[in-house]
Amino acid sequence: MDFQEKLVQELVSKHGRDRENLLPILQGVIDEERYLSEEAILKISKEMSIPAADVYGTASFYSFLDIVPRGKYVIRVCKTITCAMKGKNQILLALEDFLKIKLGDTTPDKLFTILETNCLGWCHKAPAMLVNDDVYTELTPDSVVDILREYKEEN
Amino acid sequence: MTKTKQLNRIDLIFKNENDCKEILQKSFDRSHEEIINEMVNSGLKGRGGAGFPTGLKWKLTAEETEKKKYVICNADEGEPGTFKDREILTRVPHKVLAGMAMCAKIIGAKEGYIYLRGEYKFLVPDLKKELRKFHDILDELGLNFRVEIFMGSGAYICGEESALFESMEGKRGEPRNKPPYPTQCGYLNKPTVINNVETLAHSYTIMKYGAKKFRELGVKDSWGSKVFSVSGDTPIPGIYELELGMSVQDFVDDFGDGDTKAVQVGGASGFLVPRKRFAKSHIGYQGKLTGVSLPTGGSMMIFNSSRSMYNVLNNYLDFFEEESCGQCTPCRVGCQQLLKGIKAVKRGEKPAAYLDKLLKLTDTMRLTAKCGLGQSVANSFSSIVENFREEMIY
């Protein structure tokens, strides 16, 4: 039994096979593997007796349930109005410049992915971003580079 | 609106009170009818934006005869410009949980959920600690009710109550046809009370201080206070509890930077109020049109004269186009066409009169979209295009 199969089985035993447990199971796979691969979707489909197309259709609806490979750290820069007004574009440019990748891409070492996202709920401290689940607010082009440098040093 | 309230800052929600056990005990000693009457008499309306009377929602669900019922706290706060629920869950989660427990006792629910938006996952450890304390209190009081956290996964539409149920049931978060309403047929098709975070916190206040005190705040049909999320061109962005019924002018006098050109009330799905209508526009639930009164989930975004309203509208439409669940054509295609349309006018590829066609399209969306998302795109679109038409063209 490979790691993924074991993971899916563990998640299904933890949460249950009923359809209402699908989201926590998908989230559990994301926590471990950073995205939902075709293989993972097929395994969940088999374990839960839900058609694979249905599992895929559900997963692809949610922006946090990635269905393409992502880096270890997914950076989501808020693009909604207040963050846009307070310099979101400069933050993105600083990120792209530092990581040498474009928006939507993942670094070759698979460490970082840069994405944009809709309102993060930090409009009074704009611009804001998430790195995985951690929130960073009142960003400047310099501060985002400092933040990412720390993540890099940890790895 | 019968009158305008001065802008009074209130301190009820965030007041440092840690007497949940006493308040719950006091409530449990009263009859269910008394509690429901207290809630109905308070005039509390849902603080998520839609404004359904909370007491009535509890009453209708209590009257259902199904054995299994649910209480759900809607913490899928995703409206651009809104961040009050996060603050409430951070600073006074026990008040929200107390509101859920009171509701559970009245309707006869044994299970409850907090549907927390994916973006707020960092709140989970503290909320779990709070839940452990809360469950201990319920055990002491003898109430068989347990609350779990259900994590969302980044979909704005899941704040719509029926889409939220679909999401909790492991499906795409697509709104359901109504009726039936959640009070009859909610999560897993069982009677469900679903309330916004702030609404539940207010119900704690009402239980503690009584409906009378709550109604001393606000104006007719918009009783009580409300937590506002203030952002944009303001020297004091943040979260403020204010009385309902204030005019936008009073708000701008306190929160603007002296050069306020417009205020977006109610987030991207709300209304844009231009300077010339500040004095005539009030914040509250009654009425539907700008100039009379503006319902809101609490988002107040301030724009000064350096801002392009074209860029603002472009940003909102980009948001709606991405967040439309895609289920109904008026919303799915409508959002795309509105976005393409304003870009074409701005580039000069379409004449200015094309904006009138787009306004007609928003009328169609308001009438035919399946849920509030598609219907409310018309609010910001028409209020921005009608008041700042020249900025859409030049």
From TrEMBL, chain A:
Record keywords, A-Z: 2Fe-2S, Iron, Iron-sulfur, Metal-binding
A Pfam family this chain is assigned to: 2Fe-2S_thioredx
Gene3D superfamilies the UniProt entry points to: Glutaredoxin, NADH-quinone oxidoreductase subunit E
Protein name (record): NAD(P)H-dependent oxidoreductase subunit E
Recorded family membership: Belongs to the complex I 24 kDa subunit family.
Annotated PROSITE patterns: COMPLEX1_24K (PS01099)
InterPro entries, sorted: NADP_DH_HndA-like, NuoE-like, NuoE_dom, NuoE_N, Thioredoxin-like_sf
Keyword Iron belongs to the record: yes
Regions annotated as coiled coil: none
Co-factor(s): [2Fe-2S] cluster
UniProt cross-references to PANTHER family, sorted A to Z: BIFURCATING [FEFE] HYDROGENASE GAMMA SUBUNIT, NADH-QUINONE OXIDOREDUCTASE, E SUBUNIT
Organism: Paralabilibaculum antarcticum
Automatic annotation (TrEMBL), chain B:
Keywords for the protein's UniProt record, in alphabetical order: 4Fe-4S, Iron, Iron-sulfur, Metal-binding
Pfam families with a match to the protein in the record: Complex1_51K, NADH_4Fe-4S
Biological source species: Paralabilibaculum antarcticum
InterPro entries according to UniProt: NADH-UbQ_OxRdtase_51kDa_CS, Nuo51_FMN-bd, Nuo51_FMN-bd_sf, Nuop51_4Fe4S-bd, Nuop51_4Fe4S-bd_sf
Similarity section: Belongs to the complex I 51 kDa subunit family.
Secretion signal span: none
Residue ranges annotated for the NADH-ubiquinone oxidoreductase 51kDa subunit iron-sulphur binding domain, each copy included: 310-355
The protein's name in its UniProt record: NADH-quinone oxidoreductase subunit E
